[in-house]
Structures are given as structure tokens and as C-alpha cells.
Automatic annotation (TrEMBL):
This is Ig-like domain-containing protein. It comes from Taenia asiatica (Asian tapeworm). The keyword Signal applies. Gene3D superfamilies: Immunoglobulins (2.60.40.10). Keywords: Signal. It comes from the Eukaryota. Residues 48-145 form the Ig-like domain. PROSITE patterns: IG_LIKE. InterPro entries: Ig-like_dom, Ig-like_dom_sf, Ig-like_fold, Ig_sub, Immunoglobulin_dom.
């Protein structure tokens, strides 16, 4: 059985299912509503635009990235979770999908072959979904499991597109 700190709390799952609650959570955590795509960093640098959160007196940084991802069936969307200021010996980073009660990833280990974490650099915990399907649409959370649970929420919208071809 996983330690309690590695499991999402009922509040976390509840928030994942109610989009209106995200605004309240964001306001509480002073999360920026201005999303910017961030690329590249050094291990010790803080990105130019970040969301700062604290847990147990320590600061963690989520880079402000696009949290609304659109993809077509069969594509390989990336949900960019970039975290800064984290000593990975003391925390676990995981991915969850709303409505599912198992992690998609726990650390570097993924639960299904279609999900993976390419880890392009130290702070990169981007989730990639291979051969995405319409059933993959929904809310996803990148979680930092430290003294308290910190998360960044993403909305993935997968649509079917036939490429504009008409068959008679």
C-alpha cells in the first residue's frame, strides 16, 4: 500500500472534477492566470515567469505554461509540467487523470505504455500521451507530493478530424 502522502486526497480529486473550483484554488495559491510557453533553463535558474507555491516553508516553482492543450486523435500531445526549486530526494512528482484512481506516473515510472516522461532536462516532468484518443480528454494534474499536496491542472481536449476528406 502506498504511503498516504503519495495518494491524492479526496479534495484533490474533487477539485479535478469541478472546473469552477480551479479558479478558487488558483486564487488561494496566488496562481497566475497569464500562461506563457517557457522553453529551456539551467538546473539552478528560476524561469522568467513562474507560479510560486510554498510547502513547509520551502518554495516550489511551476513554470507558467499553456494548461489548455488541444490535440487530434492519433497525435502525441505534451502536457508541460516544469518544476523548480525541488530536492527530488524529499518529494515525489506524479501525474493523475480526473476520474481515475491510479497514478498515470509515479516518479519516472508510468502505468501504461502510452504515457511517458521524456525528461529533457532536470526540471522537466512533461507528460506525453502517445496515440491520443478522444477518451483521453479531460483534466490532468501534475502533483508535487511534499509536506502538502501541490498541483498544476491541465485540460486536454482531443478531437476527431478526418483531414477535410469527403468519402462518397
Amino acid at each position: 500500500m502506498l504511503p498516504l502522502m503519495l495518494m491524492p486526497g479526496w479534495l484533490s480529486l474533487f477539485l479535478l472534477t469541478l472546473p469552477q473550483a480551479f479558479c478558487a484554488l488558483a486564487a488561494t495559491l496566488n496562481v497566475s492566470q497569464d500562461f506563457h510557453q517557457f522553453r529551456g533553463s539551467t538546473r539552478t535558474s528560476k524561469p522568467p515567469t513562474t507560479t510560486t507555491m510554498t510547502s513547509g516553508g520551502r518554495q516550489f516553482f511551476f513554470a507558467d505554461v499553456n494548461t489548455k492543450i488541444n490535440a487530434k486523435v492519433g497525435a502525441k500531445p505534451e502536457l508541460p509540467c516544469l518544476v523548480y526549486g525541488i530536492d527530488l530526494t524529499n518529494v515525489v512528482i506524479s501525474w493523475w487523470k480526473a476520474g481515475e484512481y491510479q497514478e498515470l506516473s509515479l516518479g519516472l515510472e508510468t502505468r501504461q505504455h502510452r504515457y511517458y516522461l521524456p525528461r529533457k532536462f532536470y526540471e522537466d516532468w512533461t507528460l506525453v500521451i502517445d496515440n491520443v484518443q478522444e477518451t483521453d480528454s479531460g483534466f490532468y494534474a501534475c502533483q508535487i507530493n511534499a509536506d502538502s499536496l501541490l498541483e498544476k491542472i491541465f485540460l486536454l481536449n482531443v478531437t476527431y478530424h478526418n483531414g477535410g476528406q469527403c468519402t462518397l
